[in-house]
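Entry for the shared binder. Reason: the reviewer on the internal report wants the predicted structure included alongside the sequence.
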Amino acid sequence: MIDIHAHIIPEVDDGPGSLEVSLEMLRAAAHDGIKAVVATPHILGNLEFAREREIIRKFLDLRQRVKEEGIPVHLYLGSEIYIEPNLDLDHRIATLANNGRYFLVEFPMQGIPVFAAERFFEMMVEGKTPIIAHPERNAAILLDPKKAYEFVRRGALLQINAGSLIGRFGDRVREVAEKLLAARLVHFVATDAHDTNSRPLLLSKAYQLVAHRMGQEFARLVFQENPMRALRGERIEPPEPCVEELERWAPGGLKKWIVSWWRKGR
């Protein structure tokens, strides 16, 4: 399996606080069957050069230690970009593995910015494809999963979290993740790992769940084949969505849940 979304570089964001924790996460990943991981630290769209340089330096230090420790996981560098009106992809860690094609982008949890579709269109004209990180945790998509379909219809790809599928973020998030999966709107499943406990670098349980519900072929597509194509900068052909699954969505009691979710600070 290949994980395209993980916070594993120590001391650069809200991921691991030390190199030893990073190594522990990667040992667990190797034991879980993960062969490659893309380090995706949080960044803003207008990344400063000094911060980019710090991220690259710490990534190279981590990769060297992984090699010295004999941990059988290949590491690549990318980022998780917080969408902004002045989104800039003209830096070395903007796209996954610096392939110039696919970039991982994060919406605010409370909604979808009005400028998102326009900025994505501008990026796609330049040959860059957005991969929207964990849409199943976004409040607007929780209310109406068809909003996710609109982005896919316009050429974006979706990455859901393994933890969402196994209930780590609550029942509502799990339900929406399952709905997006059933609608064939999921193109990647990744860990979004931050630590060794609450958000670990593990995929096997989610793989088994996807294989059971969607079949082995689809599981290989979202855990192995699409991630490999993304790393290589190759074209990804999304499956035909099953929009009927979204029409069956009944968000009963969702407003009350979102208020509770927001007060708890996610």
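Summary line for the report: The domain at 2-263 is CATH 3.20.20.140 (TIM Barrel).
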